[in-house]
Amino acid sequence: MQETADHINEAGARRSEALAADASLVGKWEKWPGPSGRRPTLAVLAVLSEIYECSIEQLLDLDDRRAMPDTERLVLAQAAGPVAEGDDPQPAPARRREPVGAELLHVAAEESATWAAWAEATNVGDIAIEQLMADTRALSEDYLAGDPAHVFTQTRRLRDRTFTLLEGRQYPRQASDLYVVAGYLCTLLAWMSSDLGQLRDAETHGRTAWLCAELAGHRELSAWVLSTRSKIAFWDGRLRDAITHARRGSACRPRGTVAVLLASQEADAWSELGAMDEARAALARATDARDQLAAAQDEIGGLFSCPEVRRANYAAAVLTRAGDAQSALAEADHALRSQPAHSYGTAAQIHIARASAFLLLDSPDGAAEAVAPVVALPPEQRLEPVMRRMRDLATAIARSRWSAARPAARLQEEIDAWCLTTAPRLLALSPGSSSG
Predict the structure, then answer these.
(1) What are phi and psi of 245, to 5 degrees?
(2) Is the dihedral of CA 262, 374, 420, 187 positive or negative?
């Protein structure tokens, strides 16, 4: 009995049903509808049908059906649907007399009550949704410092749980909340996929996240989805798309720090195109957005936040491309002094921006010292954007007048070796990967 109870509790947890079954309760369910038995609810019957791999109808005999409330029998009949052609249906019962007079009013009231009982049924509660959102926040935080492949696996599992719940029935308000959770989880998967070098997969997650945001009518989520899609387009070389996504995100008029990030991303893309006037204008909008935030709080936080260190990182990269080494160093140093540090990925890009600025100042030794923390990163933290920035730095060194000098040559060798063991490469070479 206890083994059966354990299976019931496990199956109930997968369906977000807190059943708390034990051997005694299972015994009472089996004795029902006898005098010492206890009637199992529809939720219990659904779990039992999953465990025994049969339909709910196959669990019930004639006495069971007679002992069930009318409302539950009707719910089961509606769930069963029409009999398919070729099935062997039970003989149809004699046609019931249509009610008239006061009886008609009474039957109509019962029908309304029965439908209300069906409409009131939900496969998720408010506490469960609150927990899903809390778990999403935890994953968003964990990604900033954890192993990206491990966090990806956890995020995928939570997304699957949320999708399964959405396939059931819940109140419209609960369905909207579930779409928000699913949207943030898909956005997180999109961001991580791009960090691991899988841009096509990232774009797929991004489209699903956008659908969730649209179904939920949630402008903050919409802004984060567009920020993520801007990032993906940037690293895919689609710079005009990156700008378009960033501007659409800003048009959502989000309340949180994503407004700062969107303007910063637009500036990043403009600077890659060489349009420095537009890039500086976007940087100014990022600063204005930061100054107007007041006490606004991000809904999720972690990856879905843009603290000052993240804004300064973008500014340092843009100013380096503009050839303004002193301003770039000032932004980078300001970012490194900002507390708390946002993530190892952001910190790495700040160090690379400092190294690039030192190259502009004809200081290869300063560049080597600035990028040393990045060279020391473990392979699992060498994400695709960081690798791209490191390769850009190596190219800048090769084009500088210091390229033949020993410090510059040694730094190029270190970067080449560093790029051979990155997170995307480890993922491609992991067991079960389709990559050769």
Answers:
(1) -60, -45
(2) negative
Q: Report pLDDT for 81.
A: 55
The reply to whether omega before 340 is within 30° of 0 (cis) is yes
Return phi, psi of residue 301, to 5°: 85, -170
8 Å CB contact between 89 and 83:
yes
Overall size of the chain counted in residues: 436
Distance CA 87, CA 184 (A): 44
> Rounded CA gap, 61 and 32, in Å?
11
**Sign (positive or negative) of CA dihedral 216, 217, 223, 228:** positive
Note whether 364 and 411 are within 8 A (CB).
yes
How many whole angstroms separate alpha carbon 350 and alpha carbon 319?
Answer: 12
| Residue 218 φ then ψ, to 5° | -115, 105
Measured CA to CA, the distance from residue 148 to residue 142 in angstroms comes to 9
Paired residues of 301 in beta bridges: 304
Residue 86 pLDDT > 80: no
**Assessment of whether the complete model's pTM goes beyond 0.70:** yes
324 and 315 Cβ atoms separated by less than 8 Å: no
Q: Which residues contact 377 (CB under 8 A, 6 or more apart)?
A: 344, 348, 386
> pLDDT tens for residues 14-72?
766 666 677 777 777 788 787 777 888 877 788 788 888 888 777 888 777 778 877 77
The segment with the largest mean pLDDT, out of 104-118, 141-155, 403-417, is 141-155
- Asked whether the beta carbons of 318 and 206 are under 8 A apart, the reply is no
End-to-end CA distance of the chain: 50
Contact 225, 183 (CB under 8 A): yes
Residue 400 gets the label, from left (phi > 0), alpha (psi -120 to 50) or beta, of beta
* Helix-strand-coil split of the chain, %, nearest 5: 70, 0, 30
Determine the Cα–Cα distance for residues 285 and 262; give it in Å rounded to an integer.
Answer: 10
Q: Where are the domains of the chain?
A: 1-76
C-beta atoms surrounding 273 within 10 Å: 14
Amino acid letter, residue 149: A
CB of 60 within 8 A of CB of 40? no
CA–CA distance, 26 with 40 (Å, rounded to integer): 9
Among 393, 385, 386, which Cα is nearest to 412's?
Answer: 393
Per-residue model confidence as pLDDT tens digits over 267-297: 999 999 999 999 999 999 999 999 998 766 8
